[in-house]
């Protein structure tokens, strides 16, 4: 996936800036679990171990975005758009408890 195949909405960048101001540099990992579905999980850098098979999709707001190799195979022809909407974030994600949460939207890229 090219660096420009992950982007963020202004709402996501605003929420991200608040989280970075409080926690310092973060990273995103696109959840593939049944409970979080389309939620990109946001962690303080160093609090989540990137696996050797994880794929870096690019960066939003200067923060890296990763996805597992198996999820990448499914999503590799898709542009991921990180958004922020009202609600609670994933249990372990730094957006939890803020009444705003990250959400991944997508659009198919030209193959």
Give me a quick take on this structure.
Helices cover 19% and strands 38% of the residues. It has 111 residues and is α/β, with parallel strands linked by helices.
Essential attributes:
2 helices, single chain, alpha/beta, three-stranded mixed sheet, 7 strands
Cα Rg: 13 Å
Order of helices and strands: EHEEEEHEE
Strand content range: 35-45%
Strand order within the widest beta sheet: 3-2-5-4
The low-confidence parts are none
Which term fits the overall shape?
A: globular
Organism: Paracoccus mangrovi
Protein name: DUF779 domain-containing protein
Pfam families: DUF779
Written overview of the protein:
- This protein has a four-stranded mixed beta sheet with strand order 3-2-5-4.
- It has helices at residues 10-23, 69-75, and strands at residues 6-8, 26-30, 40-44, 55-60, 63-67, 78-86, 100-108.
- Strand 4 (55-60) and strand 5 (63-67) form a beta hairpin.
- The longest helix is centred in the N-terminal third of the chain and has 14 residues, at 10-23.
- It is of the alpha/beta class.
List the helices and strands and how they pair.
Blueprint: E1 6-8, H1 10-23, E2 26-30, E3 40-44, E4 55-60, E5 63-67, H2 69-75, E6 78-86, E7 100-108
Parallel strand pairs: 1-6, 2-5
Antiparallel strand pairs: 2-3, 4-5, 6-7
